[in-house]
Protein backbone atom coordinates (compact mmCIF):
# COMPACT_ATOMS: atom_id res chain seq x y z
CA UNK A 1 0.00 0.00 0.00
CA UNK A 2 2.88 2.38 -0.44
CA UNK A 3 2.00 3.71 -3.87
CA UNK A 4 -0.52 6.45 -4.27
CA UNK A 5 -3.94 5.38 -5.44
CA UNK A 6 -7.51 6.47 -5.40
CA UNK A 7 -9.53 5.61 -2.36
CA UNK A 8 -13.20 5.96 -1.70
CA UNK A 9 -14.14 7.23 1.71
CA UNK A 10 -17.46 5.89 2.93
CA UNK A 11 -18.88 7.53 6.03
CA UNK A 12 -21.29 5.45 8.05
CA UNK A 13 -23.40 6.73 10.93
CA UNK A 14 -23.54 4.10 13.64
CA UNK A 15 -23.35 4.13 17.44
CA UNK A 16 -19.99 3.34 19.03
CA UNK A 17 -21.16 0.07 20.55
CA UNK A 18 -21.86 -1.41 17.11
CA UNK A 19 -18.80 -0.02 15.38
CA UNK A 20 -16.52 -3.02 16.02
CA UNK A 21 -19.03 -5.34 14.35
CA UNK A 22 -19.36 -3.04 11.36
CA UNK A 23 -15.58 -2.63 11.07
CA UNK A 24 -14.87 -6.35 11.08
CA UNK A 25 -17.48 -6.85 8.34
CA UNK A 26 -16.01 -3.96 6.34
CA UNK A 27 -12.61 -5.63 6.41
CA UNK A 28 -14.23 -8.80 5.07
CA UNK A 29 -15.57 -6.98 2.02
CA UNK A 30 -12.30 -5.29 1.14
CA UNK A 31 -12.09 -2.06 3.14
CA UNK A 32 -8.53 -1.38 4.22
CA UNK A 33 -8.68 1.30 6.84
CA UNK A 34 -11.10 2.99 9.21
CA UNK A 35 -11.32 5.98 11.48
CA UNK A 36 -13.77 5.99 14.35
CA UNK A 37 -15.63 8.84 15.93
CA UNK A 38 -18.36 8.75 18.52
CA UNK A 39 -21.19 8.26 16.03
CA UNK A 40 -19.31 7.78 12.76
CA UNK A 41 -17.08 5.30 11.05
CA UNK A 42 -15.07 6.54 8.08
CA UNK A 43 -13.97 3.58 6.04
CA UNK A 44 -11.58 3.48 3.10
CA UNK A 45 -11.48 1.17 0.14
CA UNK A 46 -9.54 1.23 -3.14
CA UNK A 47 -11.98 2.93 -5.49
CA UNK A 48 -11.69 0.27 -8.18
CA UNK A 49 -12.86 -2.30 -5.62
CA UNK A 50 -15.93 -0.41 -4.49
CA UNK A 51 -18.52 -1.89 -6.83
CA UNK A 52 -22.26 -2.49 -6.61
CA UNK A 53 -21.59 -5.80 -4.86
CA UNK A 54 -19.51 -4.21 -2.08
CA UNK A 55 -22.01 -1.43 -1.71
CA UNK A 56 -24.94 -3.78 -1.32
CA UNK A 57 -22.94 -5.93 1.12
CA UNK A 58 -22.38 -2.79 3.16
CA UNK A 59 -26.08 -1.97 3.13
CA UNK A 60 -26.92 -5.50 4.30
CA UNK A 61 -24.43 -5.15 7.18
CA UNK A 62 -26.19 -1.97 8.22
CA UNK A 63 -29.64 -3.48 7.87
CA UNK A 64 -28.61 -6.50 9.93
CA UNK A 65 -27.80 -4.44 13.01
CA UNK A 66 -30.30 -3.95 15.82
CA UNK A 67 -29.54 -0.21 15.69
CA UNK A 68 -29.54 2.66 13.22
CA UNK A 69 -26.76 2.35 10.67
CA UNK A 70 -26.63 4.41 7.51
CA UNK A 71 -24.26 5.44 4.79
CA UNK A 72 -24.07 9.22 5.02
CA UNK A 73 -21.53 9.95 2.30
CA UNK A 74 -19.36 8.30 -0.30
CA UNK A 75 -16.57 10.18 -2.00
CA UNK A 76 -13.36 9.57 -3.87
CA UNK A 77 -10.54 11.22 -1.97
CA UNK A 78 -7.27 12.72 -3.16
CA UNK A 79 -4.55 10.13 -3.70
CA UNK A 80 -2.27 10.10 -0.69
CA UNK A 81 0.40 7.98 0.83
CA UNK A 82 -1.83 5.78 2.92
CA UNK A 83 0.85 4.32 5.16
CA UNK A 84 2.13 7.73 6.09
CA UNK A 85 -1.33 8.95 6.97
CA UNK A 86 -1.99 5.89 9.07
CA UNK A 87 1.37 6.01 10.79
CA UNK A 88 0.67 9.53 12.00
CA UNK A 89 -2.28 8.25 14.00
CA UNK A 90 -0.25 5.80 16.12
CA UNK A 91 0.63 7.31 19.46
CA UNK A 92 3.09 6.03 22.06
CA UNK A 93 1.48 4.21 24.98
CA UNK A 94 2.62 3.49 28.52
CA UNK A 95 1.77 0.02 29.78
CA UNK A 96 3.04 -1.00 33.22
CA UNK A 97 6.83 -0.67 33.09
CA UNK A 98 6.91 -0.15 29.34
CA UNK A 99 6.82 2.81 27.00
CA UNK A 100 5.80 1.52 23.58
CA UNK A 101 6.28 3.64 20.53
CA UNK A 102 6.53 3.12 16.79
CA UNK A 103 10.06 3.57 15.42
CA UNK A 104 9.05 6.53 13.29
CA UNK A 105 7.91 8.63 16.30
CA UNK A 106 10.79 10.70 17.57
CA UNK A 107 9.97 11.17 21.22
CA UNK A 108 12.03 10.72 24.36
CA UNK A 109 11.37 7.90 26.79
CA UNK A 110 10.43 8.74 30.39
CA UNK A 111 13.39 7.82 32.67
CA UNK A 112 11.74 5.10 34.69
CA UNK A 113 10.24 3.20 31.74
CA UNK A 114 11.58 0.53 29.42
CA UNK A 115 11.37 1.42 25.74
CA UNK A 116 9.82 -1.05 23.32
CA UNK A 117 9.89 0.04 19.69
CA UNK A 118 7.09 -1.81 18.00
CA UNK A 119 5.79 -1.02 14.53
CA UNK A 120 2.31 -2.46 14.31
CA UNK A 121 1.65 -2.79 10.61
CA UNK A 122 -1.98 -3.76 10.80
CA UNK A 123 -4.36 -1.96 8.51
CA UNK A 124 -6.60 -0.77 11.29
CA UNK A 125 -6.78 -0.23 15.02
CA UNK A 126 -4.57 2.22 16.83
CA UNK A 127 -3.02 1.73 20.23
CA UNK A 128 -2.60 -1.77 21.53
CA UNK A 129 -5.16 -4.35 22.33
CA UNK A 130 -6.29 -4.85 25.94
CA UNK A 131 -4.99 -8.41 25.94
CA UNK A 132 -1.48 -7.33 24.90
CA UNK A 133 -1.51 -4.69 27.62
CA UNK A 134 -2.64 -7.24 30.21
CA UNK A 135 0.12 -9.66 29.21
CA UNK A 136 2.72 -6.88 29.41
CA UNK A 137 1.53 -5.85 32.87
CA UNK A 138 1.55 -9.46 34.04
CA UNK A 139 5.06 -9.97 32.63
CA UNK A 140 6.22 -7.08 34.79
CA UNK A 141 5.35 -9.03 37.94
CA UNK A 142 6.41 -12.44 36.60
CA UNK A 143 9.88 -12.26 35.05
CA UNK A 144 12.56 -12.94 37.70
CA UNK A 145 15.50 -13.17 35.30
CA UNK A 146 17.14 -15.80 33.13
CA UNK A 147 13.95 -17.58 32.05
CA UNK A 148 13.50 -19.57 28.87
CA UNK A 149 10.30 -18.22 27.31
CA UNK A 150 7.90 -19.76 24.80
CA UNK A 151 5.72 -17.19 23.00
CA UNK A 152 2.76 -18.83 21.28
CA UNK A 153 1.31 -16.61 18.50
CA UNK A 154 4.07 -14.02 18.77
CA UNK A 155 2.44 -11.45 16.41
CA UNK A 156 4.64 -8.34 16.50
CA UNK A 157 6.98 -10.14 18.93
CA UNK A 158 6.13 -7.58 21.60
CA UNK A 159 5.78 -10.06 24.49
CA UNK A 160 9.10 -11.81 23.87
CA UNK A 161 10.90 -8.50 23.42
CA UNK A 162 9.36 -7.24 26.66
CA UNK A 163 10.27 -10.43 28.57
CA UNK A 164 13.89 -10.20 27.40
CA UNK A 165 14.02 -6.54 28.33
CA UNK A 166 12.85 -7.52 31.82
CA UNK A 167 15.71 -9.99 32.10
CA UNK A 168 14.45 -13.27 30.61
CA UNK A 169 17.27 -15.33 29.08
CA UNK A 170 15.87 -16.40 25.72
CA UNK A 171 12.55 -16.46 23.91
CA UNK A 172 11.21 -18.72 21.20
CA UNK A 173 8.20 -17.31 19.36
CA UNK A 174 6.13 -18.75 16.55
CA UNK A 175 3.18 -17.58 14.51
CA UNK A 176 1.19 -19.14 11.69
CA UNK A 177 0.94 -15.78 10.02
CA UNK A 178 3.74 -15.07 7.54
CA UNK A 179 3.36 -11.36 8.00
CA UNK A 180 3.75 -11.71 11.78
CA UNK A 181 6.96 -13.64 11.26
CA UNK A 182 8.42 -10.78 9.22
CA UNK A 183 7.14 -8.14 11.59
CA UNK A 184 8.43 -9.91 14.73
CA UNK A 185 11.83 -10.36 13.07
CA UNK A 186 12.05 -6.65 12.26
CA UNK A 187 10.95 -5.62 15.73
CA UNK A 188 13.43 -8.04 17.30
CA UNK A 189 16.30 -6.46 15.40
CA UNK A 190 15.09 -2.96 16.03
CA UNK A 191 15.03 -3.65 19.79
CA UNK A 192 18.42 -5.38 19.59
CA UNK A 193 17.27 -8.65 21.12
CA UNK A 194 17.67 -10.84 18.01
CA UNK A 195 20.54 -12.81 19.58
CA UNK A 196 18.14 -13.99 22.28
CA UNK A 197 14.82 -14.16 20.41
CA UNK A 198 14.26 -16.93 17.88
CA UNK A 199 11.19 -16.73 15.62
CA UNK A 200 9.61 -19.39 13.44
CA UNK A 201 6.70 -19.32 11.05
CA UNK A 202 4.27 -22.11 11.87
CA UNK A 203 2.66 -23.59 14.93
CA UNK A 204 3.48 -26.07 17.72
CA UNK A 205 5.51 -28.28 15.37
CA UNK A 206 8.21 -25.59 15.25
CA UNK A 207 9.03 -25.97 18.96
CA UNK A 208 12.28 -27.85 19.53
CA UNK A 209 11.47 -31.42 20.55
CA UNK A 210 11.31 -32.16 24.28
CA UNK A 211 12.15 -28.58 25.20
CA UNK A 212 10.42 -27.22 28.32
CA UNK A 213 10.05 -23.56 29.18
CA UNK A 214 10.16 -21.63 32.48
CA UNK A 215 7.53 -19.29 31.11
CA UNK A 216 4.92 -19.93 28.43
CA UNK A 217 2.95 -17.00 26.98
CA UNK A 218 -0.19 -17.46 24.93
CA UNK A 219 -2.31 -14.47 23.99
CA UNK A 220 -4.44 -16.14 21.35
CA UNK A 221 -8.14 -16.88 21.79
CA UNK A 222 -10.44 -19.07 23.84
CA UNK A 223 -10.96 -21.77 21.21
CA UNK A 224 -7.33 -22.22 20.46
CA UNK A 225 -6.37 -22.16 24.14
CA UNK A 226 -8.90 -24.92 24.80
CA UNK A 227 -8.18 -27.07 21.75
CA UNK A 228 -4.39 -26.97 22.23
CA UNK A 229 -4.34 -27.03 26.04
CA UNK A 230 -2.27 -30.20 26.19
CA UNK A 231 0.32 -28.86 23.74
CA UNK A 232 0.55 -25.67 25.79
CA UNK A 233 0.66 -27.13 29.30
CA UNK A 234 3.07 -29.92 28.39
CA UNK A 235 5.68 -27.30 27.44
CA UNK A 236 5.67 -25.66 30.87
CA UNK A 237 8.65 -26.85 32.93
CA UNK A 238 8.02 -28.10 36.49
CA UNK A 239 7.78 -24.97 38.66
CA UNK A 240 7.25 -22.87 35.51
CA UNK A 241 4.64 -20.26 34.75
CA UNK A 242 1.93 -19.95 32.14
CA UNK A 243 0.29 -16.66 31.13
CA UNK A 244 -2.91 -16.84 29.10
CA UNK A 245 -4.93 -14.08 27.49
CA UNK A 246 -7.15 -13.46 24.49
CA UNK A 247 -9.89 -14.37 26.94
CA UNK A 248 -13.03 -12.62 28.04
CA UNK A 249 -14.09 -12.80 31.68
CA UNK A 250 -16.93 -15.15 30.63
CA UNK A 251 -14.30 -17.62 29.31
CA UNK A 252 -12.57 -18.03 32.66
CA UNK A 253 -14.72 -20.94 33.88
CA UNK A 254 -14.12 -22.99 30.72
CA UNK A 255 -10.36 -22.50 31.06
CA UNK A 256 -10.31 -23.41 34.76
CA UNK A 257 -12.38 -26.54 34.13
CA UNK A 258 -10.20 -27.69 31.25
CA UNK A 259 -8.37 -30.96 31.98
CA UNK A 260 -4.91 -29.55 31.38
CA UNK A 261 -5.22 -26.10 32.91
CA UNK A 262 -6.99 -27.46 36.00
CA UNK A 263 -3.81 -29.35 36.90
CA UNK A 264 -2.03 -26.00 37.39
CA UNK A 265 -2.40 -23.50 40.19
CA UNK A 266 -4.06 -20.20 39.30
CA UNK A 267 -1.86 -17.57 40.97
CA UNK A 268 -2.92 -14.21 39.52
CA UNK A 269 -5.49 -12.54 37.31
CA UNK A 270 -5.68 -9.12 35.68
CA UNK A 271 -8.67 -7.58 33.95
CA UNK A 272 -9.18 -4.63 31.61
CA UNK A 273 -12.70 -3.99 30.38
CA UNK A 274 -14.11 -7.46 29.68
CA UNK A 275 -10.68 -8.94 28.87
CA UNK A 276 -8.69 -11.05 31.32
CA UNK A 277 -5.19 -12.46 31.71
CA UNK A 278 -4.64 -15.57 33.85
CA UNK A 279 -1.36 -16.62 35.41
CA UNK A 280 -0.75 -20.24 36.38
CA UNK A 281 2.08 -22.06 38.07
CA UNK A 282 3.01 -25.69 37.51
CA UNK A 283 3.93 -27.86 40.49
CA UNK A 284 7.57 -28.91 40.86
N1 LIG B 1 1.47 -12.09 21.10
C1 LIG B 1 0.98 -10.89 20.44
C2 LIG B 1 -0.03 -11.20 19.33
C3 LIG B 1 -1.34 -11.78 19.79
S1 LIG B 1 -2.51 -11.96 18.46
C4 LIG B 1 0.39 -9.94 21.46
O1 LIG B 1 0.21 -10.34 22.60
O2 LIG B 1 0.11 -8.79 21.11
C5 LIG B 1 -2.53 -13.73 18.28
C6 LIG B 1 -1.52 -14.27 17.30
O3 LIG B 1 -1.62 -15.69 17.31
C7 LIG B 1 -1.77 -13.85 15.86
O4 LIG B 1 -0.61 -13.23 15.33
C8 LIG B 1 -2.09 -15.16 15.13
O5 LIG B 1 -1.57 -15.21 13.81
C9 LIG B 1 -1.43 -16.20 16.02
N2 LIG B 1 -2.01 -17.54 15.97
C10 LIG B 1 -3.33 -17.87 15.99
N3 LIG B 1 -3.47 -19.21 15.95
C11 LIG B 1 -2.22 -19.74 15.90
C12 LIG B 1 -1.70 -21.07 15.83
N4 LIG B 1 -2.51 -22.12 15.78
N5 LIG B 1 -0.36 -21.24 15.80
C13 LIG B 1 0.46 -20.18 15.82
N6 LIG B 1 0.03 -18.90 15.87
C14 LIG B 1 -1.29 -18.68 15.91
Structure write-up:
It is a single chain. By secondary structure, this protein is an alpha/beta fold. It contains nine helices and 14 strands. It has a seven-stranded mixed sheet with strand order 10-9-8-11-12-14-13, with helices on one face. A four-stranded antiparallel sheet has the order 2-3-1-4. A three-stranded mixed sheet has the order 5-6-7. Helix 5 links the parallel strand 8 and strand 9. Helix 4 packs parallel to helix 5 (about 160-165). The model is unreliable at about 125 (pLDDT under 50). S-adenosyl-L-homocysteine binds near residues 153, 155 and 177.
**Structural class, from helix and strand content?**
alpha/beta
Mean pLDDT: 91
pLDDT below 50 for ≥5 consecutive residues: which ranges? 123-127
Tally of strands: 14
Cα(first) to Cα(last) distance is 51 Å
Small-molecule components bound: S-adenosyl-L-homocysteine
Strand share of the residues? 25-35%
Helix-residue proportion: 25-40%
Indicate the overall shape.
Answer: globular
Order of neighbouring strands in the sheet with most strands: 10-9-8-11-12-14-13
Q: Give the helix tally.
A: 9
Main beta sheet strand tally, sense and closure: 7 strands, mixed
**Rg over alpha carbons:** 21 Å
